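Support reply, case 0932

Customer input (verbatim):
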Amino acid sequence: MRSDRPALHAASGTTADLVPGRLRAARGFHFFARIGGQATGNEVIVLKDLTNKTVLVVGMARSGEAAAQLLLKKGARVVLNDSKPLESFNGKLDALIAQGAQPRFGCPADQAWAGCDMMVISPGISVDAPFVRQAQAAGIAVTGELELGFTQAQGLILGVTGTNGKTTTTTLVGEIFKNAGKLSYLAGNIGIPLCQQALAAKPEDVIVVEISSFQMETADTFHPHCCALLNITEDHLNRHGTMQVYTDMKFRAFANMTPQDFAIFNYDDPGVRGALETRSVRAMPVWFSVKTPVPYGAWLEGDELVFGTPQSYRPICRMDEIRIPGMHNVSNALAAAAMAAVCAVQLPVIRYTLRTFAGVEHRIEFAGEAAGVRYINDSKGTNVDSTIKAVQTMQTNTVLMLGGYDKHTDFDPLTREILANPAIGHIVVYGDTRSQIEQSLVRLGYAGARITRVDGSFESAVRAAREAAHPGDTVLLSPACASFDQFDDYEQRGRVFKDLVKRMGEGTL
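Our regenerated output:
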């Protein structure tokens, strides 16, 4: 059977000839020649030799467990610590303890670090936490799981950061490289610790890292060969305090890059453009835009995605060929295409991937249908800007579910977008932020009669959305908030939502 999948090394549609001539010789511009060489300037790595180091791992969720496993494999003496008792992990950590890790549970970290050379903290722990400062004052080196994983990783390291679109773009980049014949690993904030992937990846492989601002607090030597900054909007101010600090954390991903690396920037995003006015990045700038041609990069030329320069560019695919919905995903596709193109992945491979990539779980994901009502799971909408993108895709009458953990967010921009889209016919507010969201909606003119406030459980909120919907309507879960008031993470919230939808379809809810 003939496949429409392109040859991995097609003779036409290459990208190397679209790079400005002055760069080609300087960069040794060929992905398949560079990938095994780790040519990213990372010859000196502080944490490289872990043999016989005593390391305290604080926080035993996914990242802590992966960090401990890597440390044991590299010959370190590992101490496990969590404020919860060991019994609460239900045997999940028994294998680490059997390999020699020492358990110190049910106590604060400062009661567990005696004799330790280094401490690895989870992304959920701020570097400003008192015990972290105390450890540093006591001469204990403090690092994070992502930084630790980077120091031990082999292969080509690529990064994706920004406020929104990270998971979709990271996954899409990974799919492009997979279709280019490379073994690609996804890691980081996407939910798979970099330490875990560092144990698996070989020098010829690719690791695409989704980077959060939390992880960058402890990233001192992290150095991707190519990194994209998708956008910058208000988020995580409860952690970082100010937008300047939050933006600084985003730009730390570029701090160790050199002129031989590539920095992919959103030409359309005022947060990115504004930040670049006061910050310098040494990597080669590459742009993407859905609005205008860019000096070098990927943009929309009419209804076609193209890559190159305004003087010399090649088509990638038509906008309507991209499977994932919404203009925000066109922007994500351009970013992914630019990342792949500067690494010399050939255009037919990029084209094939954009035409076949169906999206990621928990991001504008069809969850099911019950009683003629469609349910959309956008649990990954954990901030205002992300939910705005989801709202913009709604064209039929929609019941929108908003609420969750309070990150000290201004909901007015979301309210204005809701008012601009007549498809948003009813809103259910729930969780810790229900009052703030309701106040924003009413103050700016959204009819109070079209708002249902739920003071109970998440299931009660889903029931309320069902009651507000009619056959032919859509219920959109896009909370604009984190999930920590009722769930472990947005993934658990999305899974619970899909399970409730399934039960509705079966008539058991």
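We compared this against your earlier run and they match. Two observations from our side: The mean pLDDT is 88. The chain has three domains: 16-38+154-356, 54-146, 365-506. Please reopen the case if you see a mismatch on your end.
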